[in-house]
Amino acid sequence: MRKRLIAGNWKLNGDWSLCQQFIAAFAAEKPAKQQADVDVIVCPPAVYLARFAELIQSESSLLQLGAQDVSTEKQGAYTGEIAATMLSELAVGYGIAGHSERRHRFAETDQQVVNKMLNLFAANVTPIVCVGEPIEQREAGKAEDFIESQLIPVATALAEQGLNGRPMAIAYEPIWAVGTGKSATPEQAQSMHAYIRSVIARFIDTDELRVIYGGSVTPDNATALMAMPDIDGALIGGASLDPKQFVALANV
Ligand code: PEP
Fold it and tell me: Do 9 and 227 meet the contact criterion of CB atoms below 8 Å apart?
């Protein structure tokens, strides 16, 4: 039985006040679910990570911290970058690699996504690697081919680097569902999640691999999505900016 993973990605949103509201909401609402049932991750902009980490520790919150991105490099003359080792120093437990906005707006390549993932592993930060097809690929009946092409470099690196069994997650985020209000149906997501697991299983064991869904997840559609056997959690953008909705999502 894989432990559920609920991760909120604030993107370029939020402020210090929102960080405090999250701590307060999780303290006040007393989520029915506990850390034994679910990993609840919030990924604020990187500048808030250090203070957020202190607050989480002092309040013993259910929340854990994740980073939205990480450098492909380990250290050196890379102005503006943040290394995986710097994240682990701040008790950041998770790091997103290859979000579709990074792949498209910042032209991130599959190889860069792999390098980010490997840097996260090396720093003992659990990677959440995102894959997702554009609408054109889905409409052309080529969604699985597209996802496979994104997965092969990741799975090859996992096998070659001996990372079998190390905790990680794959986030299936169809681009047409991200930020559009148009979620994949539970059946569409389930079918792709099972496919993702089967592709990775050609390279490493997938019993513990968490495959989470992202794309317009809200408290209204989360229960049906999460009821699917291969959907191990969610990566949430818009709804993760509302503390009450995020508490509700943690409780699904
Ligand atoms: C995301 O950005 O990863 C995402 C899934 O966004 P949203 O929930 O707003 O669709």
Answer: no
pLDDT digits (tens, 9 = 90+) for 213-223: 999 999 999 99
CB neighbour list of residue 54: distance below 8 Å, 6 or more residues apart:
none
How far is 98 from 52, CA to CA, in rounded Å?
Answer: 24
Q: CATH top-level class for 4-250?
A: alpha beta
The share of the chain scoring above pLDDT 70, in percent, equals 99
User: How far is the first Cα of the chain from the last one, in angstroms, to the nearest whole number?
Assistant: 16
Question: Which pLDDT tens digit goes with each residue over 105-118?
Answer: 999 999 999 999 99
Active site residue 193: no
Q: Which atom of ligand 1 is nearest to the CA of 238?
A: 9
> So where are the chain's domains?
4-250
Q: Which of 185, 98, 204 is nearest to 149 (CA)?
A: 98
Q: Is residue 117 within 8 Å of residue 129, measured between CB atoms?
A: yes
SS3 128: strand
237 ligand 1 Cβ < 6 A: yes
131 CA distance to ligand 1 centroid (A)?
A: 13
Who's near 109: CB < 8 A, 6+ residues apart? none
* CB-based contact 124:171 (threshold 8 Å): no
Strands (E), 68-218: 94-97, 126-131, 169-172, 210-214
Helices and strands of the chain, counted as H and E runs:
10, 8
Catalytic residue (choose from 101, 108, 133, 173): 173
> Catalytic: 99?
yes
Residue located via tokens 């980490």: 53
